[in-house]
Every structure is written in structure tokens, then in C-alpha cells.
Amino acid sequence: MNKIIKTIFFCFISVYSFGQNKYWVNFKDKDIQNYDYEKYLSSETIKNRKRFNLALYQYSDVPVNPLYIKTLTNSGIDIQSKSRWFNSVSVFLNQDQLKQISEMPFVASVEPVNRDIIITGSETNLKPENYHIAMIQMQSNAMLAKNLTGEGVTIGVIDAGFLQANSDRYLVHLFEEERIKGQRDFQDPSRKDIMSESATDADSHGTTVLQMISGYYPQQKTQTGLAVNSNFYLARTENGAREYRGEEDKWIEAIEWLDSLGVRLVNTSLGYAINMDDPKENYKPEEMNGKTTRISKAAQTAVADKGIFVVVSAGNEGSNPGWRIISSPADAEGVLSVGATRDRYWDKISYSSIGPEFLNYMKPNVSCFSPNGTSFSAPAVAGFVACLMQMDPNKSNKELKAIMEKSGHLYPYGNNFIGYGVPLASRAIALMENPDFKLTHSDEKHVSGSKVQIKIDKNLNADVVLFHKKNETIVKYQEIGTVHKGRLKIKRIPGIARTTVAFGQEVLEIIWD
């Protein structure tokens, strides 16, 4: 596809006037005596937690003590965001205020906040026929044959905005069928309609994401997303007019809101990493460990404690020599991080971010084709997950994630370029119906020399993808090999311990002894 792939970056406009900087204020305790979970959790949230044997009473659900907030506001502090999960508020403070708050008896700590954001998407003026490529890759016909359309599944979308989603021809069915259950603007809570008018230039990004999850144009019988019959809550957390780490705060507020509503599946195409106004405030690569950034901690809490399945774009820094790796919250262990492949070869497209070598778990987890940025591969996969949830609403996050990975065309030989590869509906459905279903598409071959000739199909003349790895998962090179008359010649590259050969839906793992 002859397109220029580029990540949206916005200029940072400073809001740090009068010597103020951004902080999270963490409190020591909560008012647990007056807490009743039935007053704060929806009936759907309670039902989900009972279904997955999650605690109905969780300390993280207890609201921030209003007396603490009142004390701060009475001291002239403007509260930016509140998080009950972290028992914290975000604020701007000068040095005198910082000292004052740090000495308050109910304050546990005050954390400085770095600032910047990346939207892991790109241009949103895209052709719907390009969206359909991911559906073809993932075998959408197998889902449709089972009448799997995301029916009965509620999806939360946290994004930059949903401008004109209500008039988009691929989304009009959601509004005619009253499948949009709620919308909130966490950047500007006074806005009750986030679709009719634009707040910033980025507001159409979430509309395209929604098309990738559930788009359908009946007049042309064109389907751009798998979850055409799901319900949705929409959250705007990104301010396209200026870039600051306050968006991370708003994301946390949004995920807590979605949890209180009983949402089981969340898609987000936002990521935090580099390109900060002050280079000293950039995240370091080693901080993409799933444990450092607050947004990754929140995403992990959502998955592990609240029963929410979170799908995240991996990021678009794969061709940036100064970074290359995934952003947060894609680094959180429990989320399903989604990279991007090319259409024809199913190898990593250049911009797609890779998993850091230091992680002891797979990132990204899966990948599929995107017309422009991993922002649009993640929602394609989110629609896939919704269909599986329709099949069996009682499958836990852990079970669903395992099925998503096992359905990948490279499984079990995943790597840090595209994870376990493109999820295939036929495999996922078989695994949902029978957890003991045996996958037979892979094989191993030990090679003691420096080259090998593989026999595939004597009549086959085709290109195959080779992932040359220094160990079981870390790719050093990917290349396209040519099968001629059913034979493929492979040479061992110095420093390479394994080579994954992917041809069609079959995979061969060469282990160089």
C-alpha cells in the first residue's frame, strides 16, 4: 500500500504557569466505614464480578475521602483529576504548595508527573475497503457463519474524540438501534455531546476506531468491523489542542467510569512514551515494564481486579531508531497489545512498535493488518474479542487472552515483532468450543549445520516470511524467502539461534544447534 505512515504528534503548549508543576497526591487512607459497594457499582459490574469470582468489596473501589479534597481546595489547590483506584488526585503545585501539601497528615506521598502523549494512530481519512483487509486476515467469514457479531457485549472506547460518529454511514446502525449507551468528555465535563461539534483537530480519530470495531454499511453490504451488534460507551480523554500528561489522568478516570458501569471490554489507541517538551522528562525505555507508568498500573488493575479485558495499540515507534519499543499501557502484562502487519506477507509493518527485550512476557501479543497505524489494528482485534465473549460470556480474561494468542498464525512460536501473529477465527472458535482442541499447524526442526533446505509442497512457488531470532522470542531480522518448486533454502545468520518460517497458516521452527 503506497501510503505514508506517520504518527500523530502534537506540539506541547505549556500550562505550567507561575512555576507550577504537575503532581499526583496520594492519600494514606479512605473512609471505609461509610462505604457500601452496592451504591457505587452498577448491577452489571456486580454481576460480572460474581461471574468471575472477583471480590465485591475492593478497597480500590472506595472513593477518595471528600474531606481530603475539601481541605486541598480550601488551600487554593485546583483538583485536575481523581482516582479512587489509586486513592489519589492530580494537581498543579508551586514549590510553596508542594511543601504545604506534603506536610498534611493525611497525605502519604506527592509524585511528580512527567508530561506527553502519543496517539498511536495516524491519518483518519481512510478508505473503508482497506479496513476489510484485517477482517479477511482474521477469517471474518468464520465468525459470520456462527452468527457472531458481538451481540450482548458492551465495549468501552477510550479515545481522542468521536466527531460525526452519529452521522457516519458505517456507524448509523449503532444509533438507529440505540447501541451507544453513553458518552462522556473527561477533558471538558460540561460537554454532553462529543459528536456534533469538534473540540480539537483530533476528534475524528475515535470515529475511525469505532468503524474498525463495528462498522457496517448495509447499502453496499460492506462490513469494516466484527462487533456490529455490540453496545458502546464512549470516553474522550485526549485534548488535541495541547499535549500534556493530564490525558493520562483522564484515561484513568475513564477506565474507572467504565468499570462502574460493568463494561467488560475496552479498546484504547492511546500510548505514553517519548517526545516530551523537555527531553529530560521523556520516559526511559526501561520504564516500559508494565509497572512504572500510572496508566499501565491502572490497565493492569482493570484486567486483574475488575475483570475488564483491555485491548491496546502497541504503538508506532517501530522504525524510530531511538525508541522502537511499545508505549504504555501496551506494556502492562495483562492487556492484549496489538501490533500491525503488512497485508500480503503478515510480517511486521515498519512502524509497528516491538516488545522490549527485557520483558519476561510477550509483547505485542497479537497483530493484524492496519491501513494506517496500530490505532486501527487494535480495534479490529477488539471486535474479534467481542465475538468470542458472545460465544461464552463466562470465559475469564486469562482464558480469553490465551485463546487469542493460541489462535495466532505463528503460535506457539511468538516473537517480539508481531506476537503470536494474526488471530484466526477458525482456530479461536475451535478453542472456545473445545479447550483441548489440538493445533496441528506447527512443527520443529533441529539443524546442526549452517544451512538447510526445507521441502514444503513440490508444486509451491511462493514467498514466505522468515523471523530470525537470537533466542525463543527476540527477532533480530525478518526477511522474505522464496519457495521454488516446493523447496526453500535457508542460511543461518551469525548470532541467530532460531528461525521461524511462516508459510500460509503453517509455521516451522528451525532450531540451529
TrEMBL record:
Active site: 159 (charge relay system), 205 (charge relay system), 375 (charge relay system)
UniProtKB keywords: Hydrolase, Protease, Serine protease
Single GO MF descriptor: serine-type endopeptidase activity
Domain Peptidase S8/S53: 150-421
Source taxon at top rank: Bacteria
GO biological process, any: proteolysis
Keyword Heme included in the entry's annotation: no
UniProt-listed Pfam families: Peptidase_S8
PANTHER family: EGF-LIKE DOMAIN-CONTAINING PROTEIN (PTHR43806:SF67), PEPTIDASE S8 (PTHR43806)
Family (UniProt): Belongs to the peptidase S8 family.
Name of this protein: Serine protease
Organism: Sporocytophaga myxococcoides
